[in-house]
Amino acid sequence: MAPLTLALLLLLLLAGPPASAAPPTCYSRMLGLSQEITRDFQLLQAVEPEVCVRYLPRLYLDIHNYCVLAKLRDFVASPQCWRVARVDALKDKVRKLYTIMNSFCRRDLVFLSDDCSALEYPVPVTAGLPDHQ
């Protein structure tokens, strides 16, 4: 083996695997953005002193629930908290997710339920996967 080829091979081995094996997909973008919005909403409720935040529609998102589209529309159309910077930023993210779901990624999404009441309360987060022994 030529010294240059050996040096390149060694360099590739030391560099390790690429950071991301696959480019983000429409689905992964929707899922990530919905989780970010839910987190931001919970933080907004905990931190924002504005009384109006209490009257915003609840925002716990599940992109596999058909009712999520109506939930996103209701949140953006909500007249509460006009001109509150954090709420405006959150509404921008919600608009972006709605556009992605309804336009760009419409064919990549599968709705598994249409339980609108499930979007009213946060889904409990599990610490880890169960053991399969």
Question: What features would you describe in this structure?
Answer:
There is one protein chain. With 133 residues, this protein is mainly α. It has one domain (25-119). The protein has four helices and no strands. The protein has helices at 3-15, 26-47, 68-77, 85-104. The longest helix is centred in the first third of the chain and has 22 residues, at 26-47. Residues 125-133 have low confidence and may be disordered.
Number of strands: 0
- First-last Cα distance: 47 Å
Counted by DSSP, the helix tally is 4
Report the portion of residues in β strands: under 5%
**Based on the structure, what is the oligomeric state of the protein chains?**
single chain
Order of helical and strand elements = HHHH
By secondary-structure content and strand pairing, the structural class works out as mainly alpha
Mean pLDDT: 77
Note the main sheet.
none
**What is the overall silhouette?**
globular
Kindly give the count of domains.
1
Radius of gyration, in Å, reads: 21 Å
Protein name: Cytokine like 1
Keywords: Signal
Signal peptide: 1-21
Pfam families: CYTL1 (PF15153)
Give structural attributes:
single chain; 133 residues; mainly alpha; 4 helices; 0% strand; disordered C terminus
Summarize the structure.
The protein is an all-alpha fold.
Which SSEs are present, and which pair or pack?
Blueprint: H1 3-15, H2 26-47, H3 68-77, H4 85-104
